[in-house]
Amino acid sequence: MPLFINRDQIFAHQVHLLEHKLRSKEERILELETENALLHLRLAECMGKLRRDQEVEILAKRRCQLQTNVQKRTRSALAELLSEVQALKQDLRDVFALYVSFATDLENQSKQLLEQVASTAVQVFQGDGIQNLKDQMSALERSLQEEKERCRIERTRRRVLHNTLVELRGNIRVHCRVRPILPFDCSHSPSRNGSSSPEVVVQAFSDDCVLVNCTKPGSPVTNKMFEFERVHGPEDSQDAVFEEVKPLLTSLLDGYNVCIMAYGQTGSGKTYTMIGSQPEDSADPKDNSQQGIIPKATNELFNLISEKPAESHTVEVSVVEVYNNELLDLLAKDEEGASVGVKREVITTSTGTSEVPCLTHELVESCAEVMQLISAALRLRAHSPTLVHRDSSRSHLIVTLTVSSKSANALALARRLQNVRQDVQRGSKREWWSPRCRRAASSRSSSPASSPYPSPCQSPCPSPRPSISQTPIRTKLQLVDLAGSECVGMSGVSGAALWESSCINRSLSALSDVLGALAEQRPHVPYRNSKLTHLLQDSIGGDAKLLVMLCVSPTQYFLTESLQSLGFGSRARQIQREPPRRKNTGIKIK
Ligand code: ADP
Ligand code: MG
């Protein structure tokens, strides 16, 4: 170890010591600074806490103040309410007092009124007031009864008068319609005098006369005149034709069977007159102007029924064709529901009416329903082209609308009519009913099998009404579009079609025979000679109304056929030649 320590060493040593001290001091400063910072932090925390405490205290003070205010306000509101309740209580007490006084007044007044009524009643009872009232009541009842009776009599009188009117016009009426010249007429007629239009030989001369020019080349002029109940010319519309047919529908609802048939050669306008143009011909589907008698009559029937009490009448429709003297049900369906024409038989029932067992009858409620069924049936109808017409119907089409009336009024009316007839028959020897009724009555007595109607009450005029009983009254409207009446040569058919044509001709001559027998009042009317007349017997005999619509072509080419049709119509009209007696002259409706 050195003995001498120099100064520098001492200084270095002191410096070292000082440095050491400095370092420790600096560390200490650092510690103190850290401590200071911590203390600052704690101070800040304490300050924050102190501030929050102060805020909480301020809030509590404010809340306390608010509560005090609310309490003050509530107290004052309660005080106000209390005073209002007290005022209301006072009002209630006043109203109650008023009510009590009013009730007392009312009681007093009603007591006084009762006393007055009692004293008046006593006066009335003592006098003849009640008796007067009773008298007045019975007088009123009597006059009501009289009015009802008068109303009923008026209704009966209306029906009797309507029927008389129809009978005066004829139970068998023949109308004639001369159709216009149509394009197919030109193909049949060679041009005359250089003119391409065919010669017109059949004309509607007046409202009831048809003039036929029968002049043969080289012979003097020969004109023939035919008279009918009504003649329509080429310009007459479907509506005009139907207007003349319309009254028959009133007769139908009055309890008479009605038949409207179109007769004429092929192409003369039978189907056009009965059914009308097909809808596709018309641009406007709602245009009814081209409808024929069948749709128009059906529509009118439903119109008339709609004026009657609800559900008093029901209507059923059946459609049949007579083809080759066989009856085919055109509404029948096979097992798969497809429409097929099914053969049926026509029979005469024990009551003398004609009936077709198993015939399909469809219940209908509108004209549209009927027309739908007819259009379906028409698709099955036998058609074939002939020389005259490329769509010639080879069968007779019969649409039957059966109207059943459940109306008590109708029954009473039928009873009344029957009584009137019986009274007249008993009281007077005069035959007041029409010649046809006499004829039918005589034919019934001598030939019950051919008589169309039963005679349950020995009514002078056989009626389709089965009897005056509680059974519904059933009347038939038969609408017939006959097959063409031309002779075989004219239609130019051969082979199987010849048989077809000869069947048509035979059934039409059977129809002519029936009308002839009725005209001559023969005891036997040969209804059963053909299916057609057998089926129609209820609507062409007795007091039924028959309208034959003769359809004729105007041109020379069809002259022979037109003359044949006009002759048929004239023969049918002879039934009415004898002037009908005014059957109501002897009737006294009470
Ligand atoms: P039918 O049934 O007698 O064989 P249609 O009724 O079929 O004859 O008539 C033959 C054609 O003549 C049809 O095209 C029909 O539209 C037309 N026709 C018939 N009558 C008239 C008429 N009065 N007015 C206009 N066209 C008619
Ligand atoms: Mg036809």
Features:
590 residues, alpha+beta, Kinesin, ten-stranded mixed β-sheet, three-stranded antiparallel β-sheet, 14 helices, 17 strands, binds adenosine-5'-diphosphate, binds magnesium ion
What does this structure look like?
The radius of gyration is 54 Å and the shape is elongated. The chain is of the alpha+beta class and 590 residues long. The chain has 2 domains: 52-169; 170-408 and 471-585, Kinesin. Strands 1, 5, 6, 7, 8, 9, 12, 15, 16 and 17 form a 10-stranded mixed sheet that branches. It is built from 14 helices and 17 strands. The structure holds adenosine-5'-diphosphate (ADP) and magnesium ion (MG). Adenosine-5'-diphosphate binds at residues 179-180, 182, 264, 266-272, 277, 389, 392-393, 484, 551.
Provide the low-confidence segments as ranges.
Answer: 424-469, 576-590
Instruction: Give the DSSP E fraction (strand runs of 2 or more residues).
Output: 5-15%
Instruction: Quickly count the domains.
Output: 2
Q: Which topology of the largest domain does CATH recognise?
A: Kinesin
Biggest sheet features: 10 strands, mixed
